[in-house]
Design a protein that fits this description.
The protein is mainly α. The protein has helices spanning 2-10, 12-31, 35-40, 42-67, 75-88, 109-112, 114-152, 157-160, 163-174, 179-187, 193-258. The protein has 2 domains: 2-112, Up-down Bundle (Four Helix Bundle (Hemerythrin (Met), subunit A)), CATH 1.20.120.350; 121-225, Helix Hairpins (Orthogonal Bundle).
Length: 266
């Protein structure tokens, strides 16, 4: 029975069914944010939400039954359990804020869709390299903020009047949000300020941020390489078994040819 349950949970049709439930449930939770729709179809949306929750709970219980102790060794099972547990928590009184966290069920797609799981695994693999880049970016931001506060604090105090204000303004500049107007406000008094902003954008946007992309792409390449190696090992093992079976067949055929007439080897 346990093997049948494990096979049922691993079947592609069941995976597609769970993906469909997640998508329908996420859509229903989104429709609840529209007052006109929520007022007219409140009962239907609530029913969809409850049915989806019951299906997720039943799936988790089936996994626990099929995998037993191995259930806790899979981080994705812990992830799914935490999301479902949030949905099961009381949502009245001071805990009513948990109602907004029901949309976290949409994140279950990360554990159900294999391609998304590979992306998350690659991001986790890239975290050590990304942490070094975050330190580098923070250092560049801090140095630039101190310089901007000293140079332009008196000219544009609303943007560079203090260190926290300068950090926020430069972060806005780094993301490309309205940086042209920020630079023009300063350049009315300091015409050469474009040099500072140009160097800052080149360093942060075109160098440091691209390092993030390079680290993530490298981690994804490593993840794909490991997956290909695992598939090749499986294929090699399968081919070895097939070769051994072919050799056994040849030995049996040779024994039959060598056996006396009217006798067959036992």
């Amino acid at each position: 029975m346990r093997e049948r349950t494990r096979a049922f949970l691993a079947h592609p049709r069941f995976h597609r069914f769970i993906i469909g439930v997640i998508l329908v449930n996420s859509g229903a939770l989104g429709l609840e944010t529209m007052p006109a729709v929520a007022e007219r179809y409140d009962h239907l949306l609530t029913t969809i939400d409850h049915v989806a929750l019951y299906i997720f709970v039943a799936e988790l219980l089936a996994k626990i039954y099929a995998e037993r102790a191995a259930f806790l060794r899979d981080p994705w099972n812990i992830f799914d359990t935490a999301i479902v547990a949030i949905a099961l928590a009381p949502m009245t009184g001071s805990l009513s804020v948990l109602r907004s966290l029901r949309i976290l069920r949409a994140l279950r797609l990360l554990s159900v869709v294999p391609s998304l799981r590979r992306v998350i695994s690659a991001l986790l693999r890239a975290m050590p390299g990304m942490s070094s880049i975050v330190v580098l970016l923070s250092l560049v931001l801090y140095v630039a903020a101190v310089m901007a506060t000293k140079l332009y604090g008196g000219t544009a105090p609303e943007r560079f009047g203090s260190l926290p204000t300068s950090l926020f303004t430069l972060y806005q500049t780094m993301t490309g949000d309205d940086w042209g107007n920020i630079a023009r406000d300063v350049m009315r008094t300091h015409p050469t300020a474009w040099v500072f902003f140009t160097i800052f954008i080149l360093v942060c946007t075109f160098v440091v941020l691209n390092l993030f992309m390079a680290v993530v792409v490298s981690a994804m390449d490593e993840e794909n390489a490991e997956e290909r190696a695992a598939l090749e090992d499986t294929s090699a093992h399968t081919q070895q078994i097939l070769d051994e079976l072919a050799a056994v067949r040849e030995e049996l055929a040779e024994l039959r040819r060598q056996a006396p007439t009217g006798l067959t080897p036992r």
